[in-house]
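Case 413 in the screening queue. Each case pairs one protein sequence with one candidate compound; here the compound is heme C. For every case the pipeline is the same: read the inputs, emit a complex structure as tokens, and attach any notable structural observations.

Predict complex for case 413.
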Amino acid sequence: MKRRVRNHYRMAFVFMVAVGAAIVDYSSGANAQAARAGAVKKDGLQAVYATAVEIAEGKRIAQASCVRCHGLDGISTVKGVPHLAGQRPAYLYLELRAYQSGARGKKVMDGAAEFLSDDALVKVAAYYASLDPAQPVAASGAKPVPAKPGPVQAGKADAAACAGCHGEGGISKTPGMPNLVALDPKYLVAAMKGYKSGQRKHDVMQSLLAAVSDADMNNLALYYALQKPARAQTPVTGDQAAGKAAAAACAGCHGKQGVSTNPDIPSLAGQDAQYLATALQAYKDGSRGDESMKGLAAALDDRVMKDMAAFYAAQPPQPPNVRRPLTTAEWAKKCDRCHGVNGNSVAPFLPALASQRVDYLEKVLRDYRARVRKSSAMAAMSDALTEADVENLAAYYARQKARAVVFVPVPGK
Ligand code: HEC
Ligand code: HEC
Ligand code: HEC
Ligand code: HEC
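Case 413 output:
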């Protein structure tokens, strides 16, 4: 029933719609989903048929108003200016309307689209959509962008400098050295900042963290929080039963078995016993400042401190409540649900991302996140993206091969 349109008529349909006549398709094969996507009405779009003549008119409009930024071939050589070649036609038209209304900023296109009629917008959109898309970044000879390590990977790399004292994966093997595993990232970051600022006094930790940025601290904390917890591999001496009885007073904050559910309060389960006893001593003598702990520790003698330390050190540590962030590949899977396989959208009003300029992709993702560019779908998506995610996803899509769409008419009634 379908009739494939010859190449120069490739964009025979600009907008899908309404009354049962049109279907979008990929050159690579039939896709039933496309038919449904095409059938969705958006902004009251009507079915519009762009003929070769109209596409030629679109080209003249482009020559007059668009080429200095987008080029006649729709392949941009200007930073921040997107490729338009092969982009989905209804999407191009909707964005042009967004520029006209000011929704995407008044100045970005130097008013190029401002005075064009609706008819002209349709034609120029059809023209750019009919062109062969850009080659992916890697294929065009540009150096592929090296993937930026995600936060966990970055934290792992930084943690190499800590393993000598705190153990591999934050599991201490040295009496007096705290475990860093099984602690909430919020507590870990606060502890590190405390050392760095000198508020928590420890010369060694202060100098070690002097040059560590907030972002690196976040990465380190996340890395340790995601490691498999284990008790410190250090000796435990003291009377655990006596310690357990005395620790009843601490359960309200540190948890019954030393597993805290408050991210500001450290878990004590599985912590190195010597470190725990020293910390209590430090609260008591005031060398470690904390109002709630100072009062509590003041009443404890050395014996009780040791027993409590022994009790907590023997408890099984639990992982804090943090989720591993998604990898770029996992993110891309979510994005592809709307933007099509590898960013090759099959819906006429959803943009293709494949082979788009990397600088432009980064910019718009940041724009969505900052609400400079408004879209409810993209606001929700972009909020969860870190800077590394933005850069990696932009690089990922810029590397994907763009596939042009072939629009196929189905005979109507
Ligand atoms: C002065 C340079 C300039 C001119 C002239 C210009 N554009 Fe643009 N265009 C841009 C820039 C920059 C952006 C990206 C702006 C942003 O980030 O929102 C853009 C974005 C677009 C987009 C959105 C693409 C997307 O992927 O979301 C479309 C569609 C577009 N231009 C079409 C046109 C058409 C059609 C013309 C001629 C009528 C034109 N532009 C003229 C600079 C220009
Ligand atoms: C030379 C040994 C040494 C190295 C290397 C070291 N630390 Fe420490 N760290 C210590 C000691 C000792 C303490 C306990 C200090 C105290 O009593 O406050 C400590 C405490 C900490 C604490 C507080 C734990 C808690 O339960 O409150 C954190 C967090 C920490 N270190 C993070 C790091 C990180 C991250 C690195 C690597 C960048 C690192 N440390 C490297 C010796 C070291
Ligand atoms: C009111 C809540 C509260 C109670 C009750 C409490 N703690 Fe704490 N505890 C904290 C907070 C908050 C910190 C972190 C303070 C800081 O940053 O130095 C802490 C820290 C500690 C630390 C240091 C852990 C580390 O990783 O450095 C030890 C050890 C400790 N508490 C033991 C106890 C013991 C033993 C008791 C019972 C006698 C107790 N706490 C009761 C709130 C409490
Ligand atoms: C629920 C559907 C949906 C999902 C999921 C989604 N997007 Fe979008 N995306 C959209 C829509 C709709 C637009 C057009 C919004 C507009 O008009 O500004 C868009 C626009 C974009 C644009 C702008 C394209 C251009 O040419 O200007 C980029 C870049 C983008 N999305 C990237 C992503 C990435 C990366 C993800 C995954 C993290 C993602 N999107 C997930 C629906 C989605």
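Case 413 observations:
- The chain has a mean pLDDT of 86.
- Residues 7-143+328-355+399-409 form a domain with the Cytochrome Bc1 Complex; Chain D, domain 2 fold (CATH 1.10.760.10).
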